[in-house]
Amino acid sequence: MTLDLARNLDASDPLRAFRERFSLPQGVVYLDGNSLGALPKDTPARLEQVVRGEWGEGLIRSWNDADWINLPQRVGAKIAPLIGAQADEVIACDSVSVNLFKLIGAALSMQPQRKVILSEPGNFPTDLYMIAGLEAQGLATRRLASRERIEAALDESVALLLLTHVHYKYGEPFDMVALTKAAHDVGALVLWDLSHSGGALPVDLNAANADFAVGCGYKYLNGGPGAPAYAYVARRHQEALSQPLTGWMGHAAPFAFTDDYTPAPGIDRLLAGTPGILGLAALEVGVDLIAEIGVDRLASKSRALSEFFRQAVADRLPDLELVSSPDPMARGSQLSFRHTQAYAICQALIARGIIGDFRDPDILRFGFAPAYVSFEDVFGAARALADVIVTGEWRRPEFQERAAVT
Ligand SMILES: *Cc1c(COP(=O)(O)O)cnc(C)c1O
Predict the structure, then answer these.
(1) Domain range annotation of the chain
(2) How far apart are the first and last CA of the chain?
(3) Which of these is catalytic: 232, 268, 365, 368?
(4) How would you classify the pairing of strands 357-359 and 354-355?
(5) Is 308 noted as a catalytic residue in this protein?
(6) Sequence-ordered list of residues with C-beta below 8 angstroms from that of 329, at least 6 positions apart, any chain
(7) What is the pLDDT of residue 39?
(8) Ligand 1 in contact with 95 (CB < 6 A)?
């Protein structure tokens, strides 16, 4: 793995023109797009237009004139093909956490005699915490089973299997088709969290016969910090779906102002309160860009990038423990390594302009957002990582201090 090879790969990269469509600071190698996606260059102008024009000039008229009222559905319909769903099966709204609550609640109400929500220990915390919250309300029973034991833990008491498709820390994917089928075989429903796969890897919810899904807007979809998330409900469940956050925007006739709740038809009933238009407008720009590039092209470049990085690191640091799979087909768009000094190493890299991230207690995680990361970036990052470790640069006191957000 050499700089020349990296440059040759960049020269023949079919996605190389897309890097220019993102605004990245000079001198930064950004390997954290799996935590907060980079800023598309079109986003500031679009936000300016929404703020000054649609809000400033249009005022309340823009709910109709600028079609703000349909923005959650419009953005959802654009996300749908990225995740193997139909346009009317996806809506963009709220956060992943809130959408988890709605869909776990919906699943529980579909089979009231079943209370168990099955997940894996070490799943993304919010997924486990949302189950715990429903458990504290007396509505659910949380059951955790390690990856290899999930199928064995599925039985007729399970209402819902809730898993993150690609693990946030290790990048390991679940077999969506097989596990969805295994859950259905015992009469359980399945909710997939696509936060680390939607927009980065091919996902086919319809082919897997998935019941529900949620996913993140600010990672691979580049919607900006705290961007709205999305939720998917298979068409076959929509007519009877009852979700617990029965706010007015999910009502069949929100502007009739009646006292009784009647859910809107279809996916619209997943809305709770008034959608955040600025966040949705920014998310739409990111989604349009990802859709233009195409998930298949993104996935194949992501595999090539992570493989290049893995080999470049292995050349220099043969003892560094890789916790992601060495097989690019068996991992998401990231590579994670274990090192007792992961935090300080990560800080030393950030000081050199190489932004990856640290996951407690000892994981160094590098994400490869293929729309804007080059092979030369990845080569430089591998070289810097080796340098920081071999020279002991991470020992400097300023790299030891923990920030509030890691
Ligand atoms: C990032 C992420 C979330 C984010 O949840 P929010 O409520 O939108 O903050 C949820 N689940 C997984 C697996 C994630 O990686």
Answers:
(1) 3-30+294-399, 45-292
(2) 30
(3) 365
(4) unpaired
(5) no
(6) 303
(7) 98
(8) yes
